[in-house]
Amino acid sequence: MYTGTAVFDVLLPGDSRSLKAKRSYVRPIIAALRRFEVSVAEVGALDLHARAEIGVAVVAAEPRHAGEVLDSCERAVAGRPEIELLSVKRRLHGDDE
User: Fold this and answer.
1) d(CA 83, CA 37)
2) Fewest CB atoms less than 10 Å from the CB: which of 44, 52, 70, 83?
3) Residue 63: phi, psi to the nearest 5?
4) What pLDDT is stored for residue 18 in this prediction?
5) Which residues pair with residue 88 across a beta bridge?
């Protein structure tokens, strides 16, 4: 069994000046990522209006499959025109650790 995790650090548009406005950008991203059958949540920068950290976790039988799912999630986040993807931190954990 393998688990893969990714944390996406995203910059939100300038009109995100309140937590309510921030939520209006983050919620659709989280909903889109759930289509990949992953666990996803806003995990950091909770008190900042213009930034968000979104965490994704996947469990797979093969490490390649976990990587492919995380690749798909990264493409989905990077392809959103309303935000800017600043960085991605990924990890893969397996039985041998």
Assistant:
1) 22
2) 44
3) -65, -35
4) 82
5) 8
The residue type of 80 is R
Rg (CA), the chain: 14
Q: What is residue 48's predicted lDDT score, i.e. its pLDDT? A: 82
Rounded to an integer, what distance in angstroms lies between the CA atom of residue 91 and that of residue 6?
7
- Tens digit of pLDDT for each residue in 13-46? 877 778 888 888 999 999 999 999 999 999 988 7
Largest CA distance in the chain: 46
Which strand (E) or helix (H) includes residue 3? strand 2-11
**CB distance 12 to 50 below 8 Å:** yes
